[in-house]
Amino acid sequence: MIRFIIADLRKYWIGSAVIVLIVALAVALGVAVTLQERALRLGSAHAADKFDLVIGAAGSENQLVLSSVFLQASPLPLMDGAVLTKLAADPRVAWAAPIGFGDSFEGYPIVGTTTVLVAKLADGLAEGTVFAKEGEAIIGTNVDLALGDEIKPMHGTAEEGGQTHTELAYRISGRLKPTGTAWDRAILVPIQAVWHIHGMGHEEHEDHDAETPEATHVDHEHHDEAQADAPIDEHWGAEVPGLPAILVKPKTIADAYKLRQEYRANATVAVFPGEVLTRLYATLGDAKRVLFAVAAGSQVLVAASLLLVTVMHVGQRRRQIGALRAFGAPRHALFAIVWLELFALVLVGIALGFALGYAAARAISDLVSEGSGVSMPVGFATEDMTFLIVLTLFAALISAMPAIFAYRQSPAAALRA
User: Fold this and answer.
1) φ and ψ at 66, to 5 degrees?
2) How far apart are alpha carbons 120 and 344 in whole angstroms?
């Protein structure tokens, strides 16, 4: 029986290949949609895990998270810098890191921040040292630059017609270890330098650690312009320039909810990135259902087409089937031959479809990761095995229909055809 099926498939190899290809493309669409949606959810959730609370000026919560966590370029309103001073002194806050953006270099976003955030983003540096002066910078692991390279920041991007700042050029002093987030493609510089470059130099403030007025003057000399050798100062006083966002690490879960409630009023908004992503996932889920419905519809059409093709194929082979019956082949043997032949083709198509869907999802994820820096893990889960089982059972059912048609033919009628 197996030899007969193999010989038959060789004889009609073009039709067999078409059946396999049709099934594979239909299955690949559904698999790619499922895997890519899951990869996007897992990748974005991992990227947001590092940030417990984000505080910004009143406005769009979605845009606040997309800009501050995923570094998607978009202008954000500035909140009063006094918020940072208040958070830095709050006993419920483990650390608070301001961020400022708007500049770029060769397509990489330049983010102004502090040494605290540099230390919390990754498990240390892969090479070099953390910035200690205004003219130093730290690069993410995916930034194609080397230690010692010079960076001249551009306001905005080249596509937007941005202009290069001439006030300061950064020198790369270190590289972060991989984080699997958008920050792997970022260039981190002292927030102080960003303020000075944009004419927002932070005002001279009181040094509580200084022992004499003279020491205060020496340690905290105010610079109206950016200076590459100027030491960075991360002790926030009464006068801090406006900020687009502050990343906050509360000490406890209870503190996180209290801070969120406290800063969701008046001119500020505080959000948990995970909550914002959940809402975005809901929208993404709607799109997934639409795409999966399209994929399911295409598979139904493919099933109908396969059924039509195979029934016509069996009809064209009526004389062959009649001859087999005349030579004593039992009905169940004919049923098994036709069923196994079609079922084998569909199974190959399903397996190829899963492989193509996985490859397509990986390719899309790689493109998204390259552009955003967010790692998109593509992999199969238990629910995919359920989908495979359902497809296999459906294939077995579809394959049985033309087999039943062959089973019911009488030898005499088949030979007269």
Assistant:
1) -60, -35
2) 54
pTM (two decimals): 0.72
Contacts of 321 (CB under 8 A, 6+ apart): 314, 334, 406, 409, 414
Buried b or exposed e, range 56-80, using 16+ CB within 10 angstroms? bbeeebebbbbbbbbbeeeebeebb
R_g of the chain, CA atoms, integer Å? 32
Q: What are phi and psi of 398, to 5 degrees?
A: -65, -40
Nearest CA to 380 out of 34, 130, 13, 17 is that of 34
Find out whether 80 and 267 touch, Cβ atoms under 8 Å. Answer: yes
For residue 29, which of 390, 303, 360 has the smallest C-alpha distance? 360
Q: How many helices (H) and strands (E) does the chain have?
A: 13, 11
Render each residue's pLDDT in the chain as its tens digit; 417 residues.
556 556 555 666 777 788 888 888 888 888 888 888 888 888 888 888 889 999 999 888 889 998 888 888 778 899 999 999 999 999 999 999 999 988 888 889 999 999 999 998 888 899 999 999 999 999 999 999 999 999 988 876 656 656 777 778 899 999 999 988 889 999 999 999 888 887 775 444 444 333 333 332 333 344 457 788 888 888 887 678 889 999 999 999 999 999 999 999 878 999 999 888 888 777 666 666 776 677 677 667 766 766 666 666 565 555 555 555 555 556 666 677 777 878 888 889 889 999 999 999 999 988 888 877 788 888 888 888 888 898 888 888 877 776 666 555 555 554 455
Distance CA 370, CA 375 (A): 9
Written as six digits, the tokens of 112 are 């102004």
Query: Sign of torsion, CA 201 206 211 212?
Result: positive
